[in-house]
Structures are given as C-alpha cells and as structure tokens.
Description:
The protein has helices at residues 10-18, 24-42, 50-65, 108-116, 158-166, 182-188, 222-232, 250-256, 276-291, 307-322, 341-352, 355-368, 373-394, 419-423, 430-435, 464-478; strands at 45-47, 77-81, 119-124, 171-175, 191-194, 215-219, 262-266, 295-299, 400-404, 439-446, 452-459. By secondary structure, it is of the alpha/beta class. Helix 5 runs parallel beside helix 6 (182-188), helix 10 packs across helix 12 (355-368) and helix 10 (307-322) packs across helix 13.
Amino acid sequence: MPVPLHFQTLAELADRLAKREISSLELTRAVISRTEAVEKSVRAFNSRDAADALAQAEASDARRAAGQSRGPLDGIPVGLKDVIAVKDQPLTASSRMLANFVSPYDGTVTTRLRRAGAVLWGRLNCDEFAMGSSTENSAFHPTSNPWDLTCVPGGSSGGSSAALAAGEAIATLGSDTGGSIRQPAALCGVVGLKPTYGLVSRFGLVAYASSLDQIGPMTRTVEDAAILLGAIAGHDERDSTSLRVEIPDYRAELAGRRGPWRIGIPREYFGAGLDPEVAAAVERAVEYYRGLGCEVRPVSLPHTEHCLDTYYIIATAEASSNLARYDGVRYGHRSTKAKDIVDLYFQSRAEGFGAEVKRRIILGTYVLSSGYYDAFYLRAQKVRTLIRRDFLDAFRGVDVLLTPTSPIPAFKLGEKTDPLAMYLCDIYTIGVNLAGLPAISVPCGFTGTGLPIGFQLIGRPLDESGLLAAAHAYDRVHAWGRKTPSL
C-alpha cells in the first residue's frame, strides 16, 4: 500500500515535486485534509490559514513551471512553533498575554523559509512562553500524543512534534531552551535537532532564556533535518549572538562522512530514574554502532548532577528579565480592572501569565535580587563553565556522545502535577543547552505499549555535519521515524 503524501519524507516529496509527479498544491491539499481529519483529537495547532497555504502552494507550482524552483523545500508545507514570528499571523506563545497579538514582521528563520519556497503552514501549540515539558501549560489547550491520545507529546515544542507525527505537516520548527525540541521528538517518535547556539538566528523568536534558546528542525528522518537546517542556518546581523561561520551542505555531507565514530557513553546518564525499556532501546542503538565498527567507550561528565540546579537558576533569571516587557502598556494583554498605572502592571501580568510562567518569573526575580545575585546567579554561571568544560574534555577522546533523550516515555496527561517531577524530564537534555552544543534525538524503538523511544547524540560545537552523519548512519537503516500512528 503506498504511503500517503502527508506521511512521506521531505526528501521524497522534494524529489517527486522536482520530477513533476505531484504538485505543491496537491501536497498542501493532502496535508490540510489530514489536519482537518485528525486535529480535533491531536490539537497541535493554535491557528492555521488554509487559504494562505494554498496560495503559497500555487506560487510554488508557478515558479517550478517557469523553471525557477528554489530547491528541495520549495512547495513543502512546514509548520512553525507559535513562538516564531510570521508577518500578519498570530504570535501568541500559547499565552493569554499575547492571545490577540499579530506579528508585524517575519523572524529570520521565517524569511529564510520563504526564500527557500516553503509553504508556511500554521502556528503550533507549545507550553506557554516555551516553559514546560508536556505542552499542558498552554493557555489555550493541551496537545495529545498521536501514538496515545491520553499521553502528552512532550514539550515545550509538543505541537511541533505532534503535528509532524500525526501527518499534519511535512516538517516543523521548534525552539529548544533545555530540551524542548529533543524531548518531544523522542516522545512522538520523530527526529529533533538542537543546533549549536548561535548557528540559527533568534531574531523573531519570543525570548524565554536568551543565552539558551535555539531554533531547530523537527522531521521524520535525519536527512530531512539536514535539508531543513541548511535552509535556516547562517549569520544574521539582527542577532548579536549569531555566529559568522560558513554553512556547509549538510545533506551532501551525510554521504561523505561514514565513520566509524568514537562514541562516548556518559556514565552519569544511565543511573537511577532511567526507565528500563528506554535503557534497553538505547543499549540496542549502542550495539548497532558497535557492530558498525565504532569504538564505544565510557566517559564522565562529573558536573552533570548540578545541571538541573544551574539551568533553573540561569533560565528563570533570564526569563524574569525577558518577560518584564509584558507590562500591559505597550502591547499584549491589558487589564480592564486596574485603578492606576502601577495596578495596571500588576493586574495585567496576573491575568496574562499562567501558573508555570509566574513560578519561573518569581524564582528568576529572587535569584537576581539584591543579596542573592552572587549566591545564586553568579555561582550558577561559574558552574555552567564547568559543565561546558566537562563536555569539551570528553570530546578530546570521542567524536560524539550517546545518551537517552528522555528518562521516560510519554506519560499520561495530568499525571505529573509536581513541578520538580516535570523538570526531571529534561535531565538528559539541559546540559547541552548550558554548554551551547549541538544535539539530535533519533527514534530508536517503542515500549511494549507502543510509545516511542529516542536516543540522543551530542556533538562538538559547530560540528553539525559530523553529528548528522553519525545519526544518519543509524536512522537510514532503522527508520523508526517512518512509522506512523493509527488515529
């Protein structure tokens, strides 16, 4: 039985479009039809505009007919997490604070997708202001995992992972501050790539923690991730943290870098709290690499035990600063109950922010406050340096590190009410953000109850080519991301 258009890979569809076997209009209609069929169950979108998507598809077909194709992304429907600015489209960050805000401009990644000819398709749900690990913190609605609608899709980019897994988009973009691309990718059985900090511009990304945030692709295969990364990466004058580096052809380099690789296994990532089925699936992936002739050796990242504490000091401190701009005066939610200007500030923020966002603002304000800055924030920054040094020391002897992505598979909606239990879902991913490294989650199997499992590969700074090649060596053979849920 042929694979439906909405479940085919970006690479396959790009080839079919180039050969004129299908049109972008046909493909986009198939994705829209699929979305209309399953969205009531999955609830991956905050908003979508079918007429606009079809108009973009028609323009793509016209370019192709005129011999002006813009490359493999031309005519491919790509969904964007609702923290990335798209001109004249809602930009809500899944928050009541921005519920009625329409972006007046395109973010840099949006501009680059348009330049590549992609069909921009919808605004995807997330945890409010990207703060969460389950997409239950959205002010509008939770998103369900397509593999089990009673389970979470992960977060904060849960709408991006769920839409992709359900066939409601061919590829998506998410943002990753502490694992928000990789963890939902693992829980939904797709590929999620967090690039090196600064490789992809953050201009047009709603800020959570500016020294940690990074936009990245979510796709069915590693090859698709390489294609999408190539389109969005590169220096941007509008982002002061953007790196001036040459962007290679990531897809072409998949074939040129075949290993074998020296793979490090951090012993700190395989201890208490790791689900046995996850551990077994990751170990099978390790054995596959060993069978390819890769050298697999244990390594140590001794400051791993401090990652969670360090992350939740630095991230919340930056969130407290970034979210101060939502004051009820310039834009965003404005309370109608305020008695004066000071009350306007308090009332607007009380009404506009959800519980998790308030929790992180309060914590961040505390660690930055007089008398506590040195004790908490400054010390956390010093520990962050040690964490990064651990990774760089490990890379002196290995090419990539292999770990679980999430310690557990997808859990039930409403199951984790303790914030700390939720924070522990990112225990294997936050160190990468603190160190500014690239990392990718690759599907590697399913639990006995049919829930996806993913493993994580971590690479050297700016070695996305090597990281993608190592991930592709597994993914092209096993293709777990090609499996589709029954909805």
